[in-house]
Amino acid sequence: MIIGFTTLALFMKDHNHIINLAKKHDFEMIEILAEEPFYTKDNLEFKDCGLDIRMHAATVDINIASINSGIRDESVRQMIFCGEYAEKIGAKTITVHPGKIGRNEPRLRNWALEMAIESVGKIIDNTNVEISVENMPVREAFLANKVEELERIQEETGCSLTIDTGHGNTCGNLEEMLELKNISYCHLNDNNGIKDQHITLGEGTLDLELLKKIDIGIIELNNFNNILKSKEVIENL
Fold it and tell me: What is the dihedral of CA 113, 119, 124, 125, to 10 degrees?
């Protein structure tokens, strides 16, 4: 498996420090958490740094499936802005959350899913970087925590997929998610099977044997020491 880590664990740290840390510990990839403060550090250290660079688009206060057109349009605009930055630094992929609903009624859920599909289509049409939609955890408010919803988004937009092992573990559908087509890469993390905890691999209920199905993985934890522990778990599979 090609292994990288998220800058969630090192958010807003010096870019060169992050790059050097990745190389020191033999990582091949970095996924940049591109929340709004990231763009205040307008520099290009990640460009041509010798690592495979991916980006995770902003999620805080973002909802590309909102039935409020103003919120939805602004969310899409920010995804497109992320795409422009990704091009500058040579990032290969942008992972995007599919959005959520305020009330989980079948009619509203389907409407929001249609809005998500429309939004992902607009993002793809206005960027030159691979757009990858992520599966979500078990909470009812989230779209695409069901295999059929994520598959529908992909089939109707042509997007790639980012499969989060922890999210799939809370939904009990990770093995099915890993069978979907055009998976760009996976987020690697563990939990108790109930809550999306993002804990070290091997410390929860995740079936570690499923990791053998993954070719490219980003360890998505908020503590770098736990990222290193998870890397060791993967290497010992």
Answer: 130
Q: What is the spatial distance between Cα 169 and Cα 229, in angstroms, rounded to a whole number?
A: 20
Task: Quote the pTM value.
Answer: 0.96
Rounded Cα distance, 53 and 88, in Å: 11
Angle at 149 (CA atoms; ends 199, 35), nearest 5 degrees: 50
Q: Could you read off the pLDDT of 121-141 as tens digits, one per residue?
A: 999 999 999 999 999 999 999
What's the pLDDT tens digit per position in 189-220? 999 999 999 999 999 999 999 999 999 999 99
Nearest partner of 217 among 191, 192, 183, judged by Cα: 183
Rg over alpha carbons for the chain, rounded to the nearest Å, is 17
Question: Does an H or E element contain 133, and which?
Answer: strand 130-134
The DSSP code sequence of 71-111 is: HHHHHHHHHHHHHHHHHHHT--EEEE---B-SS--HHHHHH
- Read off the DSSP letter of residue 203: S
